[in-house]
Amino acid sequence: MATxxxxxxxxxxxxxxxxxxxxxDGESIAAVLAxxxxxxxxxxAAGVDRVIEATGKxxxxxxxxxxxxxxxxxxxxxxxxxxxxxxTAAAWGGTTTIVDFAVQRTxxxxxxxxxAWHEKARGNCAIDYGFHQIVGGVDEDALKAMEELVAEGVxxxxxxxxxxxxxxxxxxxxxxxxxxxxxxxxxIMMHAENGIAIDVLVQxxxxxxxxxxxxxxxxxxxxxxxxxxHRAIMLARLTGAPLYIVHMxxxxxxxxxxxxxxxxxxxxxxxxxxxxxxxLEEQLGAPGFEGAKWVCSTPLRARAxxxxxxxxTYLRTGDLSVVSTDHCPFCFKEQKELGLGNxxxxxxxxxxxxxxxxxxxxxxxxxxxxxxxxxxxTSTTPARMFGLYGRKGVIAPGADADIVVYDPNGHTSIxxxxxxxxxxHMNMDHSAWEGFEIDGHVDTVLSxxxxxxDDGTFHGRAGHGRFLQRGLSQYLQ
Length: 477
Ligand code: URP
Ligand code: ZN
Ligand code: ZN
Known about the structure:
- This protein is of the alpha/beta class.
- The protein has a domain at 61-390: Metal-dependent hydrolases (TIM Barrel, Alpha-Beta Barrel).
- The protein has 13 helices and 25 strands.
- The longest helix has 18 residues, at 222-239.
- One zinc ion (ZN) binds at residues 191, 246-247.
């Protein structure tokens, strides 16, 4: 494979930024050098296969999106991105690793669910990928299977306190899975919403004839997220399992998390761009059925209650550790439309895998987070959290050459361009981010030393991406 010199840029890590050249040899980073370094008096640029000019640009580790759902079966349909379309879109946006969720359906063996996900992904990914395992039914077989999966590099397990009858686990099942996770050093990921209470509120709303998309949010009030978050933390405390709460949107839930973190408990929170930028009033409450585009769980929260600002604060203080997308795209036509006349039938999910790095970079532009915190939240911490650090999440000798050249003076328009047509690459007929204008641009993306995005063109291929056997989290106590 080729040697590449990325020259003249500012290399940004979670701990600092420095002017440096980066030498790539094959799939790995060979050296990070003082700008203009020579080798035994020879110009490095003359001896490599390719030079990428990065003057005036940031050179950052490729994004690690620790929460995606390619082809997820949900609500009688499937998330519309395949592993090929979804990972290609991710590459366009500077994400070079995804960790997707393999699904154990009720009554199915976990090992069979995982194998089904391997089959979907194998040979189809443009970037590297790993799996978490959704445990759809905690029983003796499932607990035994957790041991096997950890040995195979699937070291985190998602449980649901929501969606009764689908993915839901009761408290006893959660407790048993947490006990096993504590024994194995595996991470429990929790969808923390009180699904039993929510289902009652949903039925009551429907019986009053309240069927519009905004009712999705109104029937999942913050109390249902905070209560489940608190319960999950208590069960984690009881068992000693490390706990990572996914897609947090309610400020009260994060406040509870922060309180327990301050007491020293090993609990972590993730949020997603939609909860930082979008709201119940503006998006979910859009006229007619339009709000269906933004139906996701946990739901978008009221801007009047300032959840969005508070989440930014928690990102800055460190109580929220990771920003992932929860990428779960559905087309408006025929998929979101399954819920016409009944909001509870709208498939839950938003597509963002392509936009996460850009959207979070706006936090740097707006001075809500530092440049280094941007890298930490989108790459370094997810890599550490999910046993990938060293290979991913860092620009250092020996690491995989997953690198993004990011132009802070560039510009990115998201959505549908009147002349050019669709300007994103996700397999969706709309964008949840329509009209967002980004100060910044993903110029060049390397995935394990291969240039996959450059000059506004995709140069990658399905099948380049490899399955990542992950280690245990670096955040174990
Ligand atoms: O709305 C969402 N979040 N859809 C994907 C499934 C999940 O709960 O993560
Ligand atoms: Zn979830
Ligand atoms: Zn999810």
